Structures are given as structure tokens and as C-alpha cells.
Amino acid sequence: AHQWRGVLREYADRLDISDATPIITLGEGGTPLIPAPALSARTGANVYVKFEGMNPTGSFKDRGMTMAISKAVEHGAKAVICASTGNTSASAAAYAAHAGITAAVLVPEGKIALGKLSQAIAHNAELLQIQGNFDDCLDIARELAANYPVHLVNSVNPDRIEGQKTAAFEVVETLEDAPDIHIVPVGNAGNYTAYHRGYREELDRGVSTKLPRMFGFQAAGSAPIVLGAIVKNPDTIASAIRIGNPASWELALAAQADSDGYFGAISDDKILEAHRILSAEVGIFVEPASAISVAGLLERAEAGQIPRGATVVLTVTGHGLKDPQWALRGKDGVDVAPTVVANDTAEVAGVLGLA
Ligand code: F0G
After folding, report:
1. For a Cys-Cys bond, which of 38, 201, 258, 289 suits 238, CB 3.0-4.6 Å?
2. Which ranges carry the Tryptophan synthase beta chain-like PALP domain (predicted)?
3. Is 219 inside a domain boundary?
4. What is the mean pLDDT of residues 263-274?
5. Which tens digits make up the pLDDT trace of 172-210?
6. Would 2 be classed as within a structural domain?
7. pLDDT above 70 as % of the chain
């Protein structure tokens, strides 16, 4: 019986791999593109959500990690290293475990979601909390990879972006063309770059008829690309994208120029509002960083920048179960406490308003 074989096997002809490349896969990719009627109704566009939380470790990072770890093993690496706000470390740890090699991961102390920390520990990574932010962690990881026998698997490693571009292939395949607009959250801007590359390749191959405008959104307290300057102390509840000096900044600006793209900033309140809308009206549970795609769509629609009837794809990058605490926070900022009822059917019926 057919089973999705992971992005390296599914797209072998589109990636720089050969018979000498060991395929280290957990079956990543093939994620659902979900129509979102509630978001279409709010915006007048034709909105779809690419749910990357459905990847094996719960984020889009797996697409790039299968490529990066496979190539690292091909080149004889016995250990890999990355800096991470949590998802990259979870993914690197899982793929390294599968490959039987060591993963060392550097994370900002106290600043990554519990689910992600648990994943890295469970997959037996050598995890160090650095007394600094993500940008500091990346500086150290790069220096270590330059000076010691350890292979860097952050998205400054080109294999990562190559693997991640496969998400655009899937969108084109499902819609039978590229969308008009594609929206992603932006941290290091690797994924923004990767989607643009995938769409560019599909257009150049003649598979699609257009290049989507790439819209990327950063949290207002961590918006270096929007500001045009490094942010020294980035801050946002969206811990995955708390990044002040994006590694793929230049590549992303080139992708923006090629696609008539856009970068915008979104407040934490708007991120949490979008998180509630996506959960309650569409039925998709994501981590806060992912909800910024929805917030960005709503902001652009309000600004009159989303043409009626346009096909818009939002990538939601990570699963809500990684960082579930935000769902409990009500609109008023107070945590929801589920009602307690006696062990009695009549009482439950009464409380539910059924009686
Ligand atoms: N969404 C999530 C859930 C992420 O974890 C990240 C990045 C992004 C969006 C932004 O993607 O960096 O390609 O622009 N997380 C990295 C990590 C930094 O370490 O897990 P980007």
C-alpha cells in the first residue's frame, strides 16, 4: 500500500541528492492544505491553511532537517549543532536520533516552550541553555561549527532551505497552480526564502502560471526586517520568532524584490486574537508564532491589500500542542478555568442548558 515517503524521496529529482545520500526520514511533508471558509468570509479572499504542525516533530523544520541531516551523514558527520528557539532543536534532535548521531543544541535560557524542550531532551540531544538570546546562540553555534568537528544544521546551512522549498511544490500540486499571495511568519526568514524559491522553480518549470506575492510577518517587538535594523533585545510572546538579527535577511530581501513581496509587524495582542480565531473558527491549533500568518492576513485585508477572490495560502508553522498555555488565556487576559460540576447527569444537563 502506498505511504507518503518523505520529501527527499517524493522530490528526489528536485533536490541535490544522489544514490550516495542516505535518506534519513521520519516521513515529513505531505501536510494538509486546509480550506478556511471562516477566513475567506472575513477577508473576501479564497483562503487555505498549510498546516505544518502535522510534520513528525510538529513543525515545518522537519522538511529542512531531513535534507540537512541526510547530507551531514553523507559527508561523514558524527555530530550536528544548532541554535534554536525550540523547533529546530526538536527536529534536529529527532533526526539525529534516527540517524544514530549526536545533536548538540543551544537554546536561550528560559525562553523556549516546554513542549519543544521536552522533545529535544526526549530525543537525547545534548541541550545547553545559553544565558543570552537566540542571536547569541547562533553566533556560538556558527563559531563552534567553524572550529570543531561538528556540522551546523541551522538554516544558514543551504540544505535546510532546499528541503523547506518542497512545501511550495505541495501547494502548487494541490491547487494546480501557485496562489496569488503566500503568507508566512518570519524569524530568521529562512522559510520565507524557501517558499519563494519553491514557487520560483515551479514557475520556471512551467508547472505554475504565476509567482505568489510573498508576505512575511514579524512580531512587533522583534521586527528587524520591517525596521531595517538589528533589534538588540527582541521581545514577543511568540518565542519561536523572537529573533533580532535574521540569518537569511539578505536572501529574504531578494525574494521580496522578486515577488513584489511585503514585510509587516504585528502586536502580541493581535497574534493572540488571531490564535483564538484560528482555533475557534477554523479548527486548527497552532503555536503563537504560527498565528501571526492569520493576523497578517487580517491586517492586510483591513488595509485593503487583499484583492477580492484572490487565492491566499497561509503557512502555520508549528503545532499548538508545543506551547498550549496560550489557549487557556481568555480575551481579558485571565486564564480560563473550566467549570466543575457534580458527578450527576441531571446537573450536567442543567449546566449545559440542555434541561
Ligand atoms: N514559526 C515557527 C513555529 C518557528 O519555529 C520559526 C523558527 C518560524 C516560524 C520562523 O521561521 O526562522 O525560517 O523565518 N524557528 C527557529 C527555531 C528559529 O529555532 O526553531 P524562519
Report:
1. 289
2. 24-318
3. yes
4. 98
5. 999 999 999 999 999 999 999 999 999 999 999 999 999
6. no
7. 100
ipTM computed for the complex: 0.99
Does ligand 1 lie within 6 Å of residue 58's CB atom? no
Residues 182 and 198 in one domain: yes
CB of 287 sitting under 6 A from ligand 1? yes
Q: Is the CB of 91 under 6 A from ligand 1?
A: no
Q: What domain range is 151 assigned to?
A: 61-157
Q: Is the CB of 59 under 6 A from ligand 1?
A: yes
Q: What is the pLDDT of residue 76?
A: 97
What pTM did the predictor assign? 0.97
CA distances 21 to 92, 152, 163, Å, are 18, 18, 14
**Whether residue 1 has pLDDT greater than 80:** no
Residues 242, 272: one domain?
A: yes
Cell triple for residue 207? 508547472
pLDDT of residue 303: 98
**Measured distance CA(67)–CA(72) in Å, rounded:** 8
Query: Given 142, 157, 172, which residue is the final one in a domain?
Result: 157
Q: Are residues 199 and 273 in the same domain?
A: yes
* Banded model confidence at residue 333, pLDDT cuts 50, 70, 90: confident
pLDDT at 332: 86
Q: Is residue 310 a part of any domain in this protein?
A: yes
Q: Best of 62, 116, 315, 317 to mutate for ligand 1, by most ligand atoms within 8 A of CB?
A: 317
